[in-house]
Amino acid sequence: MTEGPRPRPTLRDIATALGLSVNTVSRALGDKDSVSAATRAAVQAEAARIGYVPNTLARSLVLGSAMTLGLVITNPSNPFYAQLISSIELRVRAQGYSLLLLVTDESVENEQRATEALLRSAVDGAVVVPVQAEWDHWRRVRDSGIPLVFVNRDVPELGCDMVGVDYERGSYEATSHLIAGGARRLLLLEEDLPITTTADRITGFRRAMADAGLKVSDDQVQAVPTKRYDSLALPWQPEEAYRFAQTLLTDAHPDGHPDGFVTGNDYFALGLLRALAERDLAVPGDVAITGYGDHPYAAYLQTPLTTVRLPAAEVGTTAVDLLLQRLRAGTERPRKTLIRPELVIRASTGGPPALTNRQEQPSSTPG
Amino acid sequence: MTEGPRPRPTLRDIATALGLSVNTVSRALGDKDSVSAATRAAVQAEAARIGYVPNTLARSLVLGSAMTLGLVITNPSNPFYAQLISSIELRVRAQGYSLLLLVTDESVENEQRATEALLRSAVDGAVVVPVQAEWDHWRRVRDSGIPLVFVNRDVPELGCDMVGVDYERGSYEATSHLIAGGARRLLLLEEDLPITTTADRITGFRRAMADAGLKVSDDQVQAVPTKRYDSLALPWQPEEAYRFAQTLLTDAHPDGHPDGFVTGNDYFALGLLRALAERDLAVPGDVAITGYGDHPYAAYLQTPLTTVRLPAAEVGTTAVDLLLQRLRAGTERPRKTLIRPELVIRASTGGPPALTNRQEQPSSTPG
DNA sequence: GTGAAAGCGCTAACAG
DNA sequence: CTGTTAGCGCTTTCAC
């Protein structure tokens, strides 16, 4: 028969119950050695008996640290970010910190409010996937002594630590792979977000084309309109890429129809696949395509999708480690780390036609 | 030229700069009316000038509330939970609270540690997706006066508020739909987690079968082994269902091969689809199948998947609202809400064969 | 080894 | 209207 919400027990409750001073109780619980074994035992017993839990607020106030890190992220429904959240939370908790979560939905306004929240909450540091459109508010956070680690997208102006994915390389490899497979008239379908990840993928695409001696006209790089600011929307719907591709395939192509598509994420590939099927274009026979992200479904499509697997967990873990190092170390130069993604070759580019018996590894760094 | 981390400005800095008392400054900033307009203006100007940000820690300590809610969730990589996180964070922030995130990965141990963290952090309340295997630690949290709202899975023993999805109904409708389409030898592929959501879906399946006058033998309800405790794994890999289905389809079926599959999530359906394709079984010709969750890819499979769409955003929002109401109201009876999911009929059960021009709505309550 | 005193930054009482 | 006093729960001096 449980009682209603009793007032929470404090050090003083233990102290008075045992006829000790609050101070002694604090030290007994804090495992300092300036307490007799007997006292310590008594204190710990009483603490356990009344269910004492230290008040982090008070503790933080005097210690000047809340043992809390912030995580500012754009969209948890993006599988990459979902994994990032998991890996970051795990690491943060393992190091004895708490995690404050802020979601920005790609909105600068939300991000500005998020920085306010970080400042007020006096977090010890923050892992941030920046919206990138503006960053003055981040300067303010950094200047107030809260170390920042940017993840996935950088804000070089601030000279903070950064850990991301080598998107350019992933895109380069995907493109080169298509070219190696015989594709010549390639198209890149990209997100229309004004962020570096997209820009890097475009760069990779162009570089691969150039290295193969292929020209890239402007209409070979296409931005798919996305519902980026719809706060509860999924990262991207295949829908948008589907409609976009429908139009694209209908348009006149002076040099012949495209025979290869590089897409900026697996959802685009999904929509594209449908549009191609509707025009009776075979994949990979008529058109080869690559995705980006290796979402959990990619290997299980009817035409398994060649795609770029992102090391989400590694990125998250590295970010937390960088942050904690900086909390301890202080003023080193900012470190930037790009982790290399992995091209996973499947049937959509003529790879193994279906699942072989070799098990697809759903490794610790999937999606 | 930014300076290094200055000590953070406090009320006293403003007070001394203006020759006022700390108290007056506090009230001026707090919009109390017991301050002259002139003083308030001066204070606010100075606060803005030095970039004053109130210290939530100190504020919380005296006020007895940290204006923070906890969110304890099992697996952010499950698209349903990802959306839940988004919607909850949005609502929580809109109400002026912060959100502390704890991930349990379906582990009771993690959950117990999470409750410790909630107690220490003195959150005002928590939204919880419980692991359900044990719940004594939750009793402790509740007894210490922290209101809890269980989401998606209930712990009826504790008499807390709860908001979930009517999984039984979703499963009932999916099953009935298959039966209406002519399927008779149905199989249910379920998660092997010991949780009520799975149990509810099984109940719905059995009830639909019974209502149609069909018997259900034990081997018609199958649990797919999953990597549930793999901390960074995705919710479920299609892989497991694929292998499981391979075996299943190889086994002798005295009453003929199954002509319908109800699956507990869309990933299972994905694996199943491949296993069926390998045996040249046509969907929906030979076998009709349904998924559960309406993940973003479901509508875009080569055979678009009939599935049960879950109202994730609505669940999340409702949960936060219930929690905040209870924070204000105090002792009402616990309220339990089940939100109804929606069966989305597609080609895998003989629905519209492909995307029609009627736009698939990626509504605010998808996946 | 233990206690008394002071203070983290803020807000709530009460005076004036 | 404003200042003084007190205290949130805890930890860190510094005496004893």
Q: Can you walk through the features of this model?
A:
Chains A, B: Residues 356-367 have a biased composition (Polar residues). Chains A, B: Residues 348-367 are annotated as: Disordered. Chains A, B: GO terms for molecular function: DNA-binding transcription factor activity; transcription cis-regulatory region binding. Chains A, B: This is LacI family transcriptional regulator. Chains A, B: InterPro entries: HTH_LacI, LacI/GalR-like_sensor, Lambda_DNA-bd_dom_sf, Peripla_BP_I. Two copies of one chain form a homodimer. With 367 residues, the first copy, chain A, is of the alpha/beta class. Chain A has three domains: 11-54, no CATH class; 64-166 and 312-338, 3-Layer(aba) Sandwich (Rossmann fold); 167-311 and 343-349, Response regulator (Rossmann fold, 3-Layer(aba) Sandwich). Chain A is 41% helix and 14% strand. Chain A has twelve helices and twelve strands. The first copy, chain A, has helices at residues 11-18, 22-29, 37-50, 56-63, 79-94, 108-121, 136-143, 167-180, 196-211, 238-250, 266-278, 312-329, and strands at residues 68-73, 98-103, 125-128, 148-151, 161-165, 186-191, 221-224, 260-263, 288-290, 307-309, 336-339, 342-344. In chain A, the strands form three sheets. The first copy, chain A, has a six-stranded parallel β-sheet with strand order 2-1-3-4-5-11, sandwiched between helices. In chain A, strands 7-6-8-9 form a four-stranded parallel β-sheet, sandwiched between helices. In chain A, strands 10-12 form a two-stranded antiparallel ribbon. In chain A, strand 6 (186-191), helix 9 (196-211) and strand 7 (221-224) form a beta-alpha-beta unit. In chain A, helix 1 crosses helix 3 and helix 6 (108-121) runs parallel beside helix 7. The model of chain A is unreliable at 355-367 (pLDDT under 50). Chain A binds a DNA duplex (16 and 16 nucleotides) through residues 10-12, 20-24, 26-27, 30, 34-36, 39, 54-55, 57-64.
